[in-house]
Write a structure and sequence with these properties.
The structure holds 2 protein chains of 2 kinds. By secondary structure, chain A is of the alpha/beta class. Chain A folds into 3 domains: 126 residues, Rossmann fold, CATH 3.40.50.11750; 151 residues, Rossmann fold (3-Layer(aba) Sandwich); 50 residues, no CATH class. Chain A contains 16 helices and 11 strands. Chain A has a 5-stranded parallel beta sheet with strand order 2-1-7-8-9. In chain A, strand 8, helix 11 and strand 9 form a beta-alpha-beta unit. The two termini of chain A are 27 Å apart. The relative contact order of chain A is 0.16. Chain B is an alpha+beta fold. In chain B, 19% of the residues lie in helices and 43% in strands. Chain B has a 3-stranded antiparallel beta sheet, with no helix packed on it. In chain B, a hairpin with a 2-residue loop joins strand 2 and strand 3. Classes of the chains: A alpha/beta, B alpha+beta. At the A-B interface, helix 6, helix 7, helix 9 and helix 12 of A face strand 5 and helix 1 of B.
Chain lengths: 358, 67
């Protein structure tokens, strides 16, 4: 295996030339893998890997967290969430702190678990927090359909799902970012296919390769990107072809579009992006938690000194943040990129700060 | 994960000796013995069996859980 990896690394060194190349990964799992396997240290010095907005928790705006926190303080609700959201700070609290205050917050593995709890316990209303990209949204759509088929009245979803293509278009058009290639998300692409990347390659001359998550996968993807850039022939390639089809998962997409419709959505760091979010369609409105239990939240300012916005755009690294590894640490996070286990700051902290102290 | 039994839209899948209930609502034509990519309790795509086994082994070599 080591010899195979070395061969790929040698080929990257041959193919990438001497001009600066910036590649962006837009998947939190890729960010973690690049750090875990020390892939940056194997690459030529003119080839830079930067992290983009690939962690769904990180791009969720604070005002949505504040809305969820208000739902959590109701006596008649139980909040069900994936584990990575529970410690995300809102303006003045987190789901974890509300749980410690006696409110009902449960970590679930799947949205199905939340629906099952609601079916078992009809006295309380169970709210699943729908945060995630196209990998997660079809599963949540399926659960909303199951709830309707089973006539469940005490289950709903607080929906903040986001979709990748419009955000990538925004990034591609941003002159500050200047990337030549995208390491495209493997699991999102299993659902959406490569159509969006074909558009980026054609209209923005950005090389695109859908990558798997093993070290060899990522290095081969980098090599494929370098070859595209060298030849100035940008296309949408698939390295992760053991899972991803060019057309995506049409069944999952159809289900997602039956339940959700596109909406304008605010991304932390990127701002409001038209048609980049998913809203629950009116026909399923009784399963929309924020329709059933309206809340009022103020728009919250970014915590003072936090540069998560620039980190999510790949303009700065955590090492350029005055709070990083000082006030902002995994055990006391200030910015969202430190909270999520797949956030760029958490990855830098785990694999650079902790490692250098070991 | 490897599918070890199927009951309607639900299956039991296994990896590293751990069994989990997996929903099959998002994919078609899945049978016992197939490998699937699982996210949030749902199988989101079928995987090539040989490639899946290699990936699981590689992750094990690196000490990384596939769960």
């Amino acid at each position: 295996m080591k010899a195979e990896i070395q061969k790929i690394v040698d080929e990257i060194h041959t193919e990438c030339g001497e001009e600066p190349i910036r590649l962006m990964e837009v998947c939190g799992t890729h960010t973690m893998a690049i750090h875990r396997y020390g892939l940056r240290s194997m690459l030529p010095s003119n080839l830079q890997l930067v992290s983009g907005p690939g962690c769904p928790v990180c791009v969720t705006p604070i005002h949505f967290i504040d809305a969820v926190l208000q739902l959590a303080t109701r006596d008649d609700t139980v909040i069900c969430t994936f584990g990575d959201l529970i410690r995300v700070p809102g303006s003045s609290a987190s789901l974890e702190s509300e749980k410690m205050n006696g409110h009902q917050v449960r970590v679930v593995y799947s949205p199905v678990d939340a629906l099952r709890m609601a079916i078992r316990d009809k006295h309380l209303h169970y709210i699943f927090i729908g945060v995630g990209f196209e990998t997660t949204a079809p599963a949540v759509a399926a659960v909303i359909e199951m709830a309707r088929e089973n006539k469940v009245t005490n289950f709903s979803v607080a929906c903040a799902h986001k979709t990748m293509p419009e955000a990538l278009k925004r990034l591609a058009a941003d002159r500050q970012i200047q990337i030549q290639g995208l390491i495209c998300p493997g699991h999102v692409s299993a659902i959406i296919g490569i159509q969006a990347y074909e558009w980026l390659a054609k209209h923005h001359n950005i090389a695109c390769v859908v990558s798997g998550f093993d070290p060899g996968d990522i290095l081969v993807s980098v090599l494929m990107l370098c070859r595209q850039i060298k030849r100035n022939e940008c296309v949408a390639g698939i390295q992760y072809d053991r899972v991803v089809k060019a057309i995506g998962n049409t069944k999952a997409l159809a289900l997602m579009h039956r339940v959700f419709e596109p909406c304008d959505s605010e991304w932390r760091g990127l701002g409001m992006i038209p048609a980049s979010g998913l809203a629950i369609k009116s026909g399923f409105r009784r399963f929309d938690a924020l329709y059933r239990f309206p809340v009022k939240v103020k728009k919250s300012p970014t915590p003072s000194g936090c540069i998560c916005g620039d980190i999510l755009k790949g303009i700065k690294t955590p090492l350029q943040c005055g709070l990083f590894a000082k006030e902002c640490r995994p055990d006391s996070p200030i910015g969202a990129c430190m909270v999520s286990s797949e956030g760029t700051c958490a990855a830098f902290f785990k694999y650079q700060v902790v490692k250098s102290c070991a | 994960m490897k599918i070890i039994s199927i009951d309607g839209d639900e299956a039991v899948a296994q990896v590293e000796g751990v069994k989990r209930t997996v929903q099959l609502n998002l994919i078609d034509n899945i049978g016992v013995g197939d490998y699937v990519l699982v996210h949030a309790g749902f199988a989101i795509e079928k995987m090539d069996a040989t490639a899946a086994q290699e990936s699981i082994k590689l992750r094990k070599d690196y000490g990384i859980s596939t769960l």
